[in-house]
Amino acid sequence: MARLPGTPVATEPYRLVGATLLDGTLGDPVPDAEIEVDHGRIVYAGPRRRRDLAGVRVIDVAGGHLMPGFVDAHVHLSMSTWDPVETQRAWFPEEHVVAALGNLRSTVDAGVTTARDLSGLTPGYRSRIAAGDVVGPRLHLAIAMLSPTGGHADPVLANGSLPLWAERATTPGWAVVDTVDEVVKAVRALVRTGADVVKVCASGGMSSPHDDPSDRGLPEEHVAAIVAEMGGRQGQPVAAHAQNDEGARAAVLGGVASIEHGYELSDQTIALMLDRGTVLVPTLSTLLRRGAGEDDPASARRTNARESIRRAIAAGVPVALGTDAGIHVHGRNLTEIGHLVRAGLSPLAAVHAGTLAGARLLRLDDQLGSLQAGKLADFTVTAVDPLARPDALAEPDAIRLVAQGGRVMKDLDALG
Ligand SMILES: [Zn+2]
């Protein structure tokens, strides 16, 4: 069982009534619905009950849409888009911490109550959120990512020096591995530090010093060694950064739970993913973000990438929502919902990708991801109908109410 990242819970019972309920499954929306919350858990979810429950407070959210708290399966909360990177180089360590705290808060304000940080964030944040000292999503952490020497995770510059971010890291932000022994040792060290998930670079990527997306990453044999190592440990999944098809195929054959990006998937690799149940996390918010304009040299790559994701979705590959926020701006995570709809998911399926499918990928779906009796009361109430206007969810003001374990974390209408 995967580790459940905690948050404090509300102890007082209450009922939330009147909203249209989209429960995170692919079931039909329920108009004029009700959920009842007690000790942080849902004890009832369904049509509004026409009876009073003595002593249970009623919160009226008529006109809103009630959904589970969203799961963003791919973020980098230690990376900030607040200031240009050159300015950030001059930051003191505490400025990085303050920036990360702001990123955590804006992620919750965007309706994301659980997030998977795929390298960069350290376990202290997870602990402080669990203790209630800091507002932030429940966190699953990769801590660092694995690549070969000179690959996507290797920050060492040609002259052997390190960039500043790598020098100031309190835990290793990367792990360079070239043999099976090194792979196993790196994975064990990450688990010791507190990793919930291992992120492997199965291809090259952008903005690393020595490679690009067409380059190779770790081979299938090394991916399989990671999957075998993690298989015996609380069932933690392995996520593969894979931008080219060869890397994605090696990762799928090696047994990863998810392909992150998947910008150049061949039909054969898509068939393999269907066969193995491999989840795709398309990170379209980063691919299609403003500033990376259609006229830039990467635009042919963008067009191909959108087409790759459309084909995977049309074939029926399971999708979980992930934004790569940290490159995409924090706090607008639900931008991805509109992108997923344009890539071929129905709006209801896009909400499902951002809720129950994400929780399933994190192996937390027995606790999170849908609004059903017995689960933790992580929920959002939006002012817009996500089925009619999926793009409007991107605006933080559209997200009116957010709760974790029944505890209200954002409340624009002063209902709580
Ligand atoms: Zn990423």
From TrEMBL:
Identify the residues that the record assigns to the Amidohydrolase-related domain, covering every copy.
Answer: 66-408
Question: GO molecular function: any one?
Answer: hydrolase activity, acting on carbon-nitrogen (but not peptide) bonds
Q: Which Pfam families match?
A: Amidohydro_1
Q: Which InterPro entries match?
A: Amidohydro-rel, Metal-dep_hydrolase_composite, Metal_Hydrolase, Metallo-dep_Hydrolase, OTAase-like
- Full protein name: Imidazolonepropionase
What organism is this sequence from?
Answer: Herbiconiux ginsengi
